Records
---
Amino acid sequence: METIIQASYMVAAVLFILGLKQMSSPVTARRGIVWAGAGMVLATLVTFMVPEIIDSDQAITNIALIVIAIVIGGGYAWYSGKNVAMTDMPQMIAMYNGMGGGAAAAIAAVEILKARTEASHDLTGSTSISDILGPDVAILGILGAIIGTISFSGSIIAWAKLDGRLNRSKLLPKQHLVNAVLAIITVGFAASIYFSADLNTIIIFYALALVLGVFITVPVGGADMPVIISLFNALTGLAVGFEGYVLGNAAMIIAGIVVGSAGSLLTQLMAVAMNRSVANVFFAGVGTDAAAATGDGSEGVMKEIQAQDAGILMSFASQVVIIPGYGMAVAQAQHKIWELTQLLTEKGVTVKFAIHPVAGRMPGHMNVLLAEAGVPYDMIYDMEDVNADFKNTTVALVIGANDVVNPSAKNDTSSPLYGMPILDAIEADNVIVIKRGRGAGFSGVENPLFFADNTKMLFGDGQKAASELIQAVKEL
């Protein structure tokens, strides 16, 4: 039986890896999701064969609890996956990250409490958690508890910020010092758990880790949310891998390693794309009120344009580059933008989509929206591949993007965005910005592009504005 279980876990692990490989291309991504899902189903089914579960005196209770958990978790995941709006996808990803981290932390708690119960049989009180679990298992179990708990509470805060339930926050006085002290204290309690078996110490340790996750995430600005989401994804994978070692579960170990390494690489790539370090994302506070107040304020007047005039300008352009942002997702305008693209293409206009690595609220957010609308992959360009084309572009159409086209990131050393690579929309002959209002972006930093001589503002809801552009182009 043990051979079958381990072989099944290895097959599941292979499916995880192959699935991740398939996800590296938009063409094969759907297949990759199916393969990875099949691996997870296999790993879950094999759980029913584990001797500790089926050979226990509580076998019926164990199986019943597993089935209930699968029904509740699987049912909710199926319902939310089928019904979630594309605008809420970042929130769902953040929540799923948090649940994964929370599950890993819960596994650690169970194993630590089981070891504590066994240690309590020693009336001398000299037996520690590490004596019961072994040094390696105890260390990895406690590390998984810290990382998983931080990922859980941090992801919940990220979800709340993305969902608008938590407004932009100010940095607390000495925020980073407080975080550092809290982290040191948490590690101290973690060490105490290793050398003892005190219940109060365990409770305080988990409480501190929860608070640390909150304190770490609250100061992180809106412009950095995609990086934070991918980082918590990596932390969750790491925690799952550690707890897999604690349980001796090969599938959990490999899945955790795959998710942790992929998430870490994605986090690093996105940070590099912003010309910042991961540490700077946590400590700079871009998007907080304090950060948003810094930098030179833009002066000038936003010049408006009517949809009919914008339609004429785009219809007779040689090349149009469309730059989507989170505002497009909020307005659910991706389908209208694709319809507009088709009309312009029929008129002989070259149309490209320019995607910034951190556009939206999660990694690949804009790519997902455009793929859903049916935009061909060969029309979608990464920032480094399209930036040189702006000088030869007649019209740059910005819909719902703000910080990723902000010239102050290149020109204003006092700006919180300074150093972040941007899409050089300002270099196009004409820039048309579809925007609901005159406010700043999610980072809270004013955008000089909106006041530039070659920029015209088309105010209104993204979908409504796109519909008006479609009508204007059709009338020509």
---
Amino acid sequence: MSTIKINVLHTGEVCVSPYLPYGDGAGTLKAAGIGVKKEDRLWLPVSAYLIEHPKGLFLYDTGWDRSMSPDGVFDKKAQIKSLGSRLLYETNQGRVPAGQAVGEQLAAMGISPSDLDIVMISHLDCDHANGLPQVRGAKRIVVSADEMAFANGGPAMNRVRYQDIWWKDSGIETFDWNGEEGPFGKSYDVLGDGSLVMVNIRGHADGQCALKITGEDGRYVLLFADGGYSTRSWKEQIMPGICADPESMRKSLAWIRDMSEDPRCVESLANHDSDVVPHTIELRSD
């Protein structure tokens, strides 16, 4: 019997305008929180995923670094420094209670960064890549070449959106597509056996990847990062308030819906779904 375990971890929370996750047509300013009352903002979980696989230990996304909340509470000054941008802080704030940074949770499981075979980054936004210092020392850290190119170039707003201080000293590598899965026929088979496949779901970011984790019996778990903000996103096909490529985002959301409704799909999870609590999923092959 072969078992893959997916541990859903919450690495703190992010505070955003309600028009960011569900602001289809609301406009960039509202989605960025401009003119939105503090009391109307939403606190959403920031997830990372530890995958215990017969071929090793893998991590998908890293969440927030401890430097966002040095004392485990909201800390404006620390966050601006950790984010590297006052403007980015105005768009989203974070808090990381004691023990919730990904490195702390791994340590509580008896896992050190050097035990991680590959850390896979869905895309390079702050609440996915800011925690990379927590896993420095992992055997490999990877992100799509398309995402790295987008973070280093792309539209002018990327100069605020992406700050290379989160990853520049991490030893991160880029990968090129080696498969044709997904809405754009671009995927990366991490182990070469189809069990861990990074699937390009651009729209939110050019190089963003969902992770499809498949057991020997063909059942799978889909982790779709910011391809949507909850189950509601794909069920109702709700576009977020900010996306780099709206047409591609619609195509990615439709693909997420189709994959999520497939009877072989065990669970389909967005990174910031407030209805999801930390838990462990097992893909067993008897």
